[in-house]
Amino acid sequence: MKQPLFVVIAVSLLALVACDAPGRPSAYSEEVAAAAVTDFKTLYATNCAGCHGSDGKNGPAVEIGDPVYLAIADDAVIRRVVSKGVAGTSMPAFEQSAGGMLTSTQVDAIVTGIRMQWAKADVLRGGDPPPYAPSSLTNEVGDAERRKDVYALYCSSCHGLDGKGGLRGSSIVDGPYLSLVSDQHLRTTVIIGRPGLGAPDWRSNVPGKPMSHQDVSDVVAWLAEQRPQFMTQLKLKPGRGGIQ
Question: Which of 11, 119, 205, 240 shows the smallest number of beta carbons within 10 Å?
Fold first, then answer.
């Protein structure tokens, strides 16, 4: 039996509204729209702020909005970490080529935006910061007693002689913490400090006596020695590199 003409028209209109209504994006169009976002503030808020803080500071991870950090870490370092993440740590890979959700263009937008937003040309004021990564100028193995003495000189006034905390700083030798961070994370933190928590950078731990390249490496080596032994026994190595 034929349906009345008005019924046929009504059903057709309902199908049109349900499946192809103006302003109702398909799943495909939503995917394209997400991949097309290149605004730094949007990308940073969505992908980075949860760990690094809304303005690059005061998050649980390294303060990538700190101009001192941006003075020692170049764009290649930041891009590599955003793109590929850091194995063995909580820093994931973000670029699609490494299993993430961002395009190469979006990763570039984050890297460029971080520097444009927070870098300051004069932040070092003629200072000579230790390099971001260890160099041939330093002995990464060093002497155990020297490492202990350097830590005591530059760090113990806040964190205690054993690293378990003092009047002005918390413990930095907790097993779970050291198990989750890389040597590079420790190195970066020793160099740039944690300004949001009142921890000074390499220039100001001891007034008038900035840390040398070797001093930084010695402190990192001392901290690495405090990691839980099971990590060594299982031959697990914390990830290296990182927005750290």
Answer: 11
Q: Which residue has the tokens 């850091």?
A: 86
Q: Quote the CA–CA distance of 207 and 22 in Å, as a whole number.
A: 66
- pLDDT tens-digit series, residues 200-212: 999 999 999 999 9
Select from 180, 174, 57, 69 the least CA-distant residue to 132: 69
- Residue 147 contacts residue 218 (beta carbons within 8 Å): yes
Write out the two tokens for 61: 């991870």
**What is the distance, to the nearest Å, from the Cα of residue 11 to the centroid of all Cα atoms in its chain?**
55
Q: Which domains does the chain have, with CATH numbers?
A: 32-118 (1.10.760.10), 144-233 (1.10.760.10)
Dump the DSSP string for 94-131: -BGGGT-SB-HHHHHHHHHHHHHHH--TTTTTT--PPP
DSSP state of 195: G
Pairwise CA distance, residues 66 & 146, whole Å: 30
pLDDT tens by residue, 89-112? 889 999 999 999 999 999 999 999
Tokens of 115: 């520097």
**88-95 long-range Cβ contacts below 8 angstroms, 24+ apart:** 88/182, 88/236, 88/237, 88/238, 88/239, 89/180, 89/181, 89/182, 89/185, 89/238, 89/239, 89/242, 89/244, 90/51, 90/61, 90/180, 91/51, 91/61, 91/239, 91/242, 91/243, 91/244, 94/47
Give 211's DSSP letter: P
Using CA atoms, how far apart are residues 73 and 95, in angstroms rounded to an integer?
A: 19
Question: pLDDT at position 168, please?
Answer: 87
